[in-house]
Amino acid sequence: MDCTKVGKLIAHLRKEKGMTQKNLADAIGVLNKTVSKWECGLGCPDLSYWADLSSILGVDMVQMMEGEIISNKPDSGNIDKILFYVCPDCGNILVSTGSASIFCCGRKLERLNLVEKTEELGISIEETDIDYYITFNHPMEKKHYISFAAYVKNDRVLLNRLYPEQSPAFRIPINYGGKLYLYCVKDGLTVYSDLF
Fold it and tell me: In this predicted model, what pLDDT tens digit does every residue of 132-162 receive, in sequence order?
């Protein structure tokens, strides 16, 4: 670990947050001389302080330990390259349209890969005055259910969160074309592009 690089990064991040060395020291429970020592490169934080530093400074702990923050490439905004992520701990659903490091509950998430359609869902689409009412046949049990349905077209992602024991149905505004993504917690992510 390069203490000089780490120290410079801590100083930069602290100043970015508008904190003094004393503010940071008080927040993690050390003396401000300790923070000064880190920032001068005369030592690195003890392992027990990294999680707090990461949280307070709002940065990935691993990158902070390496002494540099690696920026993602600028997002081209191409909705056709949409990626979905689901946190295995809390179930949060996250979306990106470019390469990104996505973290939730302290873990780096891997994007969901599309899988072959393993079952016929019997998707039914009923057009009402202002929206589509979409239903499908799927068990909505605690260990086997559709967690989310996402309709993607042009510059929009309409995300519908679904839960176990809920009716397998949702509504989206009428909009011809686009793709429908369904994520089953057991079978994975599938896409349907010829429904609308």
Answer: 898 988 889 999 999 999 998 877 888 999 9
Burial of 29 (0-12, 13-18, 19+ CB in 10 A): exposed
**Structure tokens given for 196:** 């609308």
Strand locations in 87-178 (E): 93-96, 103-104, 107-108, 124-127, 131-135, 146-153, 156-161, 169-173
CA atoms within 13 A on the CB side of 139: 8
2: number of Cβ within 10 Å: 14
pTM of the model as a whole: 0.65
Give pLDDT tens digits for 1-59. 888 998 999 999 999 999 999 999 999 999 989 999 999 999 889 888 888 898 898 88
pLDDT above 70 for 164: yes
Nearest to 162 by CA among 177, 152, 149, 175: 149
For domain 3-66, give the CATH superfamily: lambda repressor-like DNA-binding domains (1.10.260.40)
What is the CATH topology of the domain spanning 116-196? Answer: Immunoglobulin-like (2.60.40)
pLDDT of 75 over the 60 cut: no
Domain residue spans in the chain?
Answer: 3-66, 71-112, 116-196
For 61-108, the DSSP string reads HHHHHHT-PPPPPPP---GGG-EEEE-TTT--EEEESS----EETTEE
